[in-house]
Structure formats: structure tokens, C-alpha cells
């Protein structure tokens, strides 16, 4: 499967990929995640303080963000796996962090919109199926990242080389990265199990506590993924590999478009408000 990949001659640098780690792409994920968590918090607080009524506009707006997050997370991971014979660990890891950010924010929206999904069994099972696909892809990404750390893969080699290189002892300072990667994979599985249970649970006794505690945990997870992306990316921080040029910092049309698309849900919100 990986015969076409050259894994014997690492280069001194690798090409930038603004489509993966460009400033506009990263900001669109971060802004969407921030807005989703803020809206989820508003809806949950609204329901805690008021026993009747619904935050209709916020719910419709959050629902569009929720769909966008889960589908985008699946999409970027699929593209990353399709390009694994040419994509270096730096870009592969950023995609994984963005998918974790999408997962955390989608589950935050699930906490606020669970009753919307429970009303229709088709929507509920469709959401559960998408969550399962996202979990499988995220675990596959985690295994690739774990192998790259354990084998100390050169940052300029394609990520697919982790299955060709012989096993050897990782660097002494890699223990924290290995433990963190395993913890993230295990956390994804636990979060998926909780999400499925939450979708089907009929109990209301501890619902508000689950919502508040879950929102705090998911906010911390999203914040951690965001900080990791900002520190690691060329657009905002210091990359872990030598990159040719500064293409990921430049604001081209491809970087402006994801930012402009963030206006679409706001336009929908205005249309809902106006009737």
C-alpha cells in the first residue's frame, strides 16, 4: 500500500500547505468553535433560569454550527488519510487537533440541543452514525500520531512512513507525548459512549448537572486543542518542521473564503428573527 512512498531520504524542509494550516482555515475553525460553545452556554443557562420558552434564534443558529462541525471534522480527516503518502506529521497532527476541536464543539452543541434530536428518531440515529464515523477516523489519526512519536519519525517524511520504518526506542522526552496521545484516544472513546447514552437517555433528574459539567469539560478540551494549534502552526506560532516559504501566514483568497462563510449562519439568524 505504501510502496510509492519514499521513506529513506528525509529532506531539510517541507512545503507549506495553506489549505490545511493557513491562517484563515485555522481561524474559521477556532471562531466557529468559540461561537458554538458560547451559544451552547447561553441556551443551557437560558433553560436553567427559565422553565418555559425557548431561545429559538440561538437554537437554529447553533444547529447549523453543529451540522457544520461534525461534517467538517469527518471531511478534514478523510482528506488527511487520503493524502497520508505525501502529508508530513506536522500537517497531519494539525488536522487531528482541528478534528478534536470539531468533536468537542459538536458535543457541546449536543448538550444544548439534545431535545431537538430526541424528537425525531431519524435525526437521532443519523447523528449517532456521524459521531461513530468521526470516532473511527479520530482513533485512526491517533494511532498514526502515536506511531510517529514512538518511532521518532522525521518531520519531513510522509506520515505513511510509520508503517515502513523499523521499530526503535523513542526519545526519552517522548513519554509525555505518548501518554497524552493515548489519553486523547481513550477520551474520544469515552466521550462517544457518553454522547450515545445522552442521546438515548430519558432521565431528567441529573440532566442540568450533566449539561453544565459536560460543557466545562468540553470547553477545556476545545481550549487545549486551540492552544496546541496556535503554538504549533506557522500562521500563529512556531512549527515543528522547517517549512519552505511563509504561505501559511499569507491571506490569499483561499484563506479569506472560510472566514466569509462564517457570515452565512448570521444571515440565517436575521431571517429567522424577521419571521
TrEMBL record:
Keywords from the UniProt entry: Membrane, Transmembrane, Transmembrane helix
Name under which the protein is recorded: Uncharacterized protein
Organism for this UniProt entry: Tothia fuscella
Source taxonomy: Eukaryota, Fungi, Dikarya, Ascomycota, Pezizomycotina
Transmembrane segments: 20-49, 93-117, 129-150, 174-197, 209-231, 251-273
Domain of life from the UniProt record: Eukaryota
Keyword Ribonucleoprotein among UniProt keywords: no
